[in-house]
Structures are given as C-alpha cells and as structure tokens.
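Q: Convert this sequence to structure tokens.
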Amino acid sequence: MDCKSVPSSVPSSVPSSVLPVPSSTNSIPIVEPPRDLHVLELFSGIGGMRKALQQSLANNPSYNLSSFTAVESNDICNQCYEHNFALDTSVTSKVLRRNIEQLKASDVAGKNVWTMSPPCQPFTKTKGSKELGSLDARSRAFANLMMLLETVPSPPEFIFLENVKPFNSSSVHVAFNDVLISRGYVWTEYLLSPLQFWIPNNRTRFYISARRTRKDGEGYRNEEIVNEPRDPPPKVEEGVYENFVPMCCACPISDFILSDEVLLELYGDMFESSLVVSKETLSKDWARGLSIVGLDDCVTFCFTSSYGKTYHKSSGSLFSRVTRRGKDVKRVSDMAAEHEGNIRLFAPEELLRIFGFGEEYKYPEGMRLKSRYKLIGQSVNVKVVDYVMRGLFEQIT
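A:
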C-alpha cells in the first residue's frame, strides 16, 4: 500500500503504529557494489580478448575488472602484449610465459573469468591441413584446460572461447560441451563474421560464451547457434564472394587504409621493398588469381598468419594503389607488365584497424614485419568478440 491508498480520514481509534508509512519520493535505491572480475587470459596472444573485454564492460556498472593474468608461451606475443598493456594502472596485470599443457589447479585458482583462443590448426580445412582434432599435439593444451575445468573445486563463473568454424563439428567441441554440462554451465554458441559488423573482412569464427548458473551435471546449451548480430546489416547470400555488393557493409576499405605519406613515415626507405608486391611475384602465372581490392571495395579475404609470406587469396587480399574497385583490375597473363608498383600488401597497422584494435594499439618498435603479420593473423577480431561478450555479461542473473 502506498500513500495514495490511505483514506483521507482515519478513525481516531486506530493506533498510529499501524498506519501505513508513505514512501519517500527522495528515497535512494540500493545499488549493489560492482563484482570484481579476475581474468585468466589463456593463449593471450597480443591481447585481443583483453581489449574486447575492457570495451564490453566499459559502461557496465555491475562488474569491475580487477586483474588480468595473461598466459602465453610465445615471447614475441608477450612482448607486444606488455608493450600495450604494461602501463594500464586501472587493473593488476601479470604475463606468464607458460606452456598451457603444464598449468595446474593452483595456477587457475581465484580466476572467475577464463578467455581462450586455442590453436586452430587441428581444426582448419585449408589446403594441406590434416584435421587431426584431438589427435593433434597442439590440442593437448586445450585438453589440459578441460581436465582442470572438470576437476577444480571452484570453476570460473564465465568462460569465453573463440576458434575457427570447423571447431564446431569436431570431437573436441563435443568433449568441451560435456565438461560444460558436468560443471553446470549454460552457454550460447555463435558463428559470426566481421562483415556482419560493418567491417570489410570475411573471417567467420566460432564462439562459445558460457556462464555457470546451474548445479554440476545440470548445464545445457541454448538450442540455436547465433549467426547474426542483434542489429544485423543487410543480408548477403552465404558463400558468395564475388557478388557482394557495396551495401554488404557500411565501411569501405578506404576507412581503414593509411596514406602513402603515413606509411613512408612508418617504414621509410623500407616501404617499397616491404609492402609493394615485387615484379617477380606479379610475373608468376598464378598472380592473376590473387585477391586484389581497391578503396571502394567492402570485402577482403581472411587475413592469416602467413600473410606477406605466402601469396594466395586464402591468406588475405592485396590492395591496389590506383584502382578504386578490385573488379576493375585487369587480369592479364603478365600482371607485372600491367601493375608493377601499384599492388601492395595491407600494412600491419591497417590490419590492426580492421581487427578492431584501434589507433592507440602499437607494435613494439623494431619488430620484424613478418612477426607483425603473424601476430595479427593469429588474433581475434576485437569488435566481434566485444559484441559476444556484451551478451554474456548482460545476462539477467
């Protein structure tokens, strides 16, 4: 009963102690303090998961990012990670150079968020891949994590996983689902591409976001795989590449390209030799089949860790310095005669933009070009991960 329900005249025989107390219009609602999150960033790479998590929780008052523990065995990855996050005083940070196969229960204790992007090679379907799944030695680290998750007395409340699309149909995925069920997780699975977020890059990845809200043995998966954002851009027919229209994403490649002047400042005399595709390469018979895009295009092929080392459309698109649209690039038997000096690689700094790392993220000075391409090619797309994480942490408890 509120104050409006009280009769205008109250019998004098009614004790004042039983009269309704009007609610105060100035009462302050009780606000729960934010919960501290202690993040275990497994296979941390260059910190894409951390950046996405920080972005997704930037305006969420329910959580406070208290600490990050990054676990990565690659020294070059760790160098890049520390270069960008060491000065972040808003959280406690630690980088562990550790083989995840050897992690013990004591290493994961107290971490209520696990993020991970396990090696994708056991599941990829690219040319020459063996698709060994759980039999691949590179799956051992993830197998150890599943064992820890199944046996630790206090498993994390939140788990986030990213991998290639074929992970979804692997026996490892089935085994991971069994562990999630056994520890009481409720989870959602996603198949999403940056194209669906207005980013001109075709890179479909599989995601799992899980939260422990049930008793052991009572976990379950939300039935349908989510394959489009809540506010999707115009749909594009699945599997079509050449027929993508400009409306498939709002941002053309020009939004991510750096000018030659900026690249000359970054690379100096090494610009032409490092980024411009050589006459020798363009003279190859197969060069006419390379993916070449221009400023007005809105789709690029997936950039991989072999970009800049292997020339093939499956490792990423090239950029035309003079043609607005890739379809207008003349495909001739001798591409060098027609295009020498005009076709270049996307610079690693441009790929950071496409992958959602932003202007402030930098490679350490002196890092080799080959290493820069490898690091970003193995990373996650920050914008897509940010989207999936928002859904995980916005769930009603």
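The CA atoms of residues 239 and 248 lie 13 Å apart.
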